[in-house]
């Protein structure tokens, strides 16, 4: 039986369209190899949408995303639009509202250190000897980033002050915790929940609710860490972690920490999901204006985002695995973009487009 999926593609700005072109090569191979019917439609977002429609998130793009089964996103932003008021700039005006509109309450970032790249990690080789594989599950649309009141004010003594409010509803914690435990059942069955329950009320509730959810998943082991300790343990023993479950702010920070200990942002995929399996998939990095237009950006973060898309939204695990295996094998054979190139003599430097073609070739022949 031929399966049918609708995919909205939002390439955006900077290196977004460059890496997206390589993603489309991969999608073309998948269509043929796995007999999938993929209905792909492209929409404008970010700076390119501002140039054409005067807004970073046109209605046609929103409708296209709402109509699709999943969204593949490149990146947005660049100096050209920095003169605009901040709320009209591509990142603020496109990505943040899109997450809200699509109700993407989960953000997952996969930080894997593949064994052929373990020398890129800033951590000592005895710590990362066989690589690590951490999945950060971050609550994305609650907590201190969205709580009200928020803003800057003047008090009665004419002192200026600012306020942010951290609020979590029990149901918000329950749904993200459920998600983390579900995902852990397909992995190494371990959840580390991060909070600051020694100081913050929201964290006390967080811990209580996570413990309650954990009762439904007796096969998953759960431990709790305060965020300050978590940041230390990740550096000390990254191999001890499987799924890390975090409120919005802590997840923002820890997912960057986990990403950085892989040594390369060009390799990091991410996904933002809601509970109906719908998701937006994108590289963890931005539009990289310093390297855009040069055909040197690493397309692997985007290609691994496609692998996540097939895993979490389309639930085609064999396709997700085939994409990841081709990436692993290309790396094993020494092919590198500039950002992951070292002085090892067996390494061969590839451009963005030749890396995309190389991975497509491997994928065609993947068993
Ligand atoms: P960035 O992630 O674009 O760049 C940081 C560094 O990482 C740069 O040196 C860049 O060359 C490198 N890098 C990123 N992706 C790479 C890849 N695939 N291959 C090789 N090297 C790569 O972050 P930055 O410089 O803070 O922001 C640049 C622009 O991107 C800004 O306008 C920012 O607002 C926007 N941005 C957009 C995001 C999104 O679309 N989700 C996320 C983060 C930033
Ligand atoms: Mg961040």
TrEMBL record:
Segments forming domain Isopropylmalate dehydrogenase-like: 6-359
Protein residues bound to Mg(2+): 228, 252, 256
UniProt: NAD(+) binding residues: 286-298
Compartments, as annotated in UniProt: Cytoplasm
InterPro entries: IsoCit/isopropylmalate_DH_CS, IsoPropMal-DH-like_dom, Isopropylmalate_DH
Required co-factors: Mn(2+); Mg(2+)
Keyword terms: Amino-acid biosynthesis, Branched-chain amino acid biosynthesis, Cytoplasm, Leucine biosynthesis, Magnesium, Manganese, Metal-binding, NAD, Oxidoreductase
Site residues, Important for catalysis: 145, 196
Pathway assigned in UniProt: Amino-acid biosynthesis; L-leucine biosynthesis; L-leucine from 3-methyl-2-oxobutanoate: step 3/4
Catalytic reaction equation(s): (2R,3S)-3-isopropylmalate + NAD(+) = 4-methyl-2-oxopentanoate + CO2 + NADH
UniProt binding sites for substrate: 99, 109, 138, 228
GO cellular component annotations of the record: cytosol
Keyword Oxidoreductase found: yes
Molecular function terms from GO: 3-isopropylmalate dehydrogenase activity; magnesium ion binding; NAD binding
Keyword Magnesium: yes
HAMAP family registered for this protein in UniProt: LeuB_type1
Similarity annotation: Belongs to the isocitrate and isopropylmalate dehydrogenases family. LeuB type 1 subfamily.
Protein name (record): 3-isopropylmalate dehydrogenase
Organism annotation: Buchnera aphidicola subsp. Tetraneura caerulescens
Lineage: Bacteria, Pseudomonadati, Pseudomonadota, Gammaproteobacteria, Enterobacterales
């Amino acid at each position: 039986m031929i399966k049918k999926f609708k995919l909205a593609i939002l390439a955006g700005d900077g290196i977004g369209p460059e890496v997206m072109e390589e993603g489309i090569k991969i999608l073309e191979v998948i269509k043929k190899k796995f007999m999938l019917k993929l209905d792909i439609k492209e929409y404008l977002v970010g700076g390119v949408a501002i140039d054409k429609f005067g807004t970073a998130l046109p209605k046609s793009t929103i409708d296209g995303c709402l109509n699709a089964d999943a969204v593949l996103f490149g990146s947005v932003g660049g100096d050209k639009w920095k003169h605009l008021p901040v709320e009209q700039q591509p990142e603020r005006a496109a990505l943040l509202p899109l997450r809200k509109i699509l109700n993407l309450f989960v953000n997952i970032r996969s930080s894997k250190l593949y064994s052929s790249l373990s020398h890129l990690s800033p951590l000592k080789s005895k710590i990362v000897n066989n690589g690590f594989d951490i999945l950060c599950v971050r609550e994305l649309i609650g907590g201190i980033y969205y709580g009200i009141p928020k803003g800057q004010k003047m008090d009665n003594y004419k002192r200026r002050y600012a306020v942010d409010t951290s609020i979590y509803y029990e149901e918000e914690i329950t749904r993200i915790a459920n998600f983390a435990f579900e995902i852990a059942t397909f992995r190494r069955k371990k959840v580390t929940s991060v909070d600051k329950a020694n100081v913050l009320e929201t964290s006390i509730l967080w811990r209580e609710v996570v413990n309650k959810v954990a009762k439904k998943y007796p096969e998953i082991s759960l431990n709790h860490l305060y965020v300050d300790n978590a940041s230390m343990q990740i550096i000390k023993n990254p191999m001890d972690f499987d799924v890390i479950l975090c409120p919005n702010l802590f997840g923002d920070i820890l997912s960057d920490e986990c990403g950085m200990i892989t040594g390369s942002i060009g390799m990091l995929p991410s996904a933002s999901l809601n509970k109906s399996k719908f998701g937006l998939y994108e590289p963890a990095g931005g539009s990289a204006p310093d390297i855009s237009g040069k055909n040197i950006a690493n397309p692997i973060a985007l290609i691994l985002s496609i692998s996540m898309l097939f895993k979490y939204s389309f639930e085609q695990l064999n396709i997700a695995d085939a994409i990841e295996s081709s990436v692993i094998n290309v790396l094993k054979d020494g092919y590198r973009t500039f950002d992951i190139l070292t002085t090892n003599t067996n390494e061969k430097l590839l451009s963005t487009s030749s890396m995309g073609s190389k991975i497509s070739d491997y994928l065609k022949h993947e068993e």
